[in-house]
Every structure is written in C-alpha cells, then in structure tokens.
Description:
This protein is α+β, with helices and mostly antiparallel strands. It has helices at 3-15, 22-29, 33-45, 64-67, 75-90, 96-109, 112-122, 137-149, 220-228, 247-254, 257-262, 277-282, 284-288, 301-320; strands spanning 50-53, 59-62, 151-157, 166-178, 181-188, 193-198, 202-211, 239-244, 263-267, 270-275, 296-299. Residues 8-61 form the Helix-turn-helix type domain.
Amino acid sequence: MAKADNMLSILWLLKSGRQMTARELADELEIHVRTVYRCIDSLCASGVPIIADAGHNGGYRLLHDAVAAPLFFDLDEQKALIHASIFAKEAGYPFTDALQRAIDKLRRYANEEQLNHIERHADRLSVLEPPADPEKQDVLQMLELAAGSGESLKILYLSRKNPAPQQRMIDPYGIVYWKGSWYAAGYCHLRKELRSFRVDRIIQAEPTGICFERPEQFSAKQFLMGNLLPKSLEDPQLETIVIQGPDQVLDELSKHWLFGHTQVLRQSGQAVFKADRDSMLTYIPYYLLPYGRAIRIAEPQILVEKMAEVTSVMAEYYHSMRG
C-alpha cells in the first residue's frame, strides 16, 4: 500500500473518534508499526491536529473539533455543495437544519483562501421559487424517513376531487420535487394501486409500525412522469395538435415539459404534438394562453373552441371587475 493510502487510512480510522495505539493501527491496516510512526509524522507535518497521549491508556487521537471537519473537499467541491444547498433550501428540502449545519462546518473549518472562495460564490447564485411551506417540513421528513426505512404511513389527504379529507394508508416509495411542488409516490391501500400524492394536500401523517417492501427498480420520478405523459406517442387514441407560428416562439413552446415530451414533428413554422383528449381540454389550453396571438392552432378544431371558451370566460371575469 502506498504511503498516501496508509496516511488516508489512518486518518479515517482516527476520524471515527477512537483513540488508537500505533500497534492497533498497524494491526488494523496490516502494516509495520514503524510505517504507522512515519505516517503519523507526515500527517502532523501537513497540519492534521493529531494528539499523542502517553501512558498506559494512551494512544493517538484527533483533536475533537477536527473529527467533524470536512477535510477532503477541494475548492470546486465546496462551491458545488454551497450552490446545491441553495437549490435544496429554496425547494423546501425536508432536512434544512442538517443541511445548514453541514454548510456551517464548511465555513468553520475552511482556511482563509477557502472561506473567501466560498463567500464569493455563495451570493452569486440565486433561485426563484415559490416560498416553501414550513408547515410541510415535518410531513416531508416523515415521508422520506418512511420511504428509506420501509414503513407504511397513515395520512389524512385532501384530494382534488373530494371536498372532505380522506384517511388513507400508504407505502411511500419515494418523494419527488417537480415544478414547485413535492409529491410522494407509492402504494395506496385504499385504491389498491400505485398512486402519487401532493404533499401540500397531506393534512397530517403518522407512522403505523407496519413494514413494506419497495418493488425493485421502482422509480418515483418515472412513475410521476408516466402519469402525466402518454405511455406511447403511437397510441391511436391520442389527438394530433398542430400549432403554427414563428420558429422562436415554437422553440420556446417545445421547451415546456409537456410539449417537449409529446412533440412528434418540428419543421419551420409548425410543430406537431400528440396528447390525450382529457389533457387537451383541461391543462393544454392554459399552457397555451401565455403565447396569445403569437401562435395559431391549425388543428384540432375542438382545441380552438376550448381556447375560445377559456378566453371568453376570462374576458367576462375581468370585464366584471371594471367599475
């Protein structure tokens, strides 16, 4: 084993918080005790705060604060962690307190060069997101912990279709953050099938003590997207939507999560999409509203009529607000 490997191994053993003699370190790593002494000397020379206690109960140990120090992050890794924490906190990450403690450690144990680098980059990146609901932090934590440990939860859920909340038992397989909201995906014992649940509609949650096995290869992300998008663009039941307009506008439209996944043809001045009728008459008209007169719906006519209905209702609403 190379000397650098020996030094790193000794450091990891000491970072566990244990006090170990040179003989114990040598036996653990299967190296000569003289090699341990040389590695300890090199670590001390490089600035690692190793304390040597003499006597019958003596040995080597790390200075207490150094046990918790993130010693192995370079400048780019530290910057990446800071930026990732900004995204996570803005998204309502359920373990924000632990995340902040980790970032505080980075700053606390950084040298002057590292600290200056961290501070310069920390305030150069911002995220525009709706403010996270602090009341849902406990629910998110419980969902993530239950998903990790395989424990069913009893929840009180307010669905979009029912005016009164329902008691349900679910097996949470994972949580997903998507378009400003958190979702839990898993098995619903009430519906006897896989379902997704908006976390902001979970009024309360409590553990049941009942264990479950998550299906192998299950992906909460793929399940959620599979519910929102057609299973196959070759499905003959899907409607064809033809939208015309300037290429720049159509390019922007194609970046939308729904249109980007359902586009089947793109040519100059025209884009063709496939969608089920339910989506076409519920979500899609509102997704198209911001584009106003910059686009033209060539087909189907039923979507044109739905757009006319939606815009007429909105026009009447705002006309009623005029004094």
